[in-house]
Amino acid sequence: xxxxxxxxxxxxxxxxxxxxxxxxxxxxxxxxxxxxxxxxxxxxxxxxxxxxxxxxxxxxxxxxxxxxxxxxxxxxxxxxxxxxxxxxxxxxxxxxxxxxxxxxxxxxxxxxxxxxxxxxxxxxxxxxxxxxxxxxxxxxxxxxxxxxxxxxxxxxxxxxxxxxxxxxxxxxxxxxxxxxxxxxxxxxxxxxxxxxxxxxxxxxxxxxxxxxxxxxxxxxxxxxxxxxxxxxxxxxxxxxxxxxxxxxxxxxxxxxxxxxx
Length: 261
Known about the structure:
The protein is α/β, with parallel strands linked by helices and 261 residues long. Helix content is 36%, strand content 24%. This is ABC transporter.
């Protein structure tokens, strides 16, 4: 791991329960995330991992429990509040504008940071002009960081899947988040693409000091890059600790081997 310093609790999830009709997706789940750590959420298919990520960034509202972000209680988190509070995420099914260039897609991540009013932006005058140049400079920095200069003008829909994933990461980074939520960042990638993505995630964590929460199926990746791992199974928490602790947990072993079901 890098030389970054892991800090205090930045995100605390307490007794989160979420139901859809009669189906309990999450049952009384509590865990926390420390500042500057890489925190993984793992579990078999249907364990509730994506539901948990959707609760954190306000897509779903849990029936019970609370989210505490930097000491502030959020009973009614929503996506706008989450973004304003410094949360950004990537999506399992890439949420990019396929007809727009890589550069323009990443610029959409700057929307919340833009102060100029619509009229100023429309006529590209004064503050809007200065602001656009500042935002473009930040976007160019991210493009260099993720090594995608060669595709900056290409429409995203024409890129291979692995590069689209990298652009999705760039768009999230353009928000300058304090906490980056990654929903299966390695899904559908070959070995080389996975290695690149691992390197970028660790660099984001190390160089930008960004706290990372990720869902990932590739256990090798999770155990390599995570500081701590929380394990869900059928909407319940069955393990939480360092990679070594989780690897040795009998409940986790049986869930992954299918012995408990």
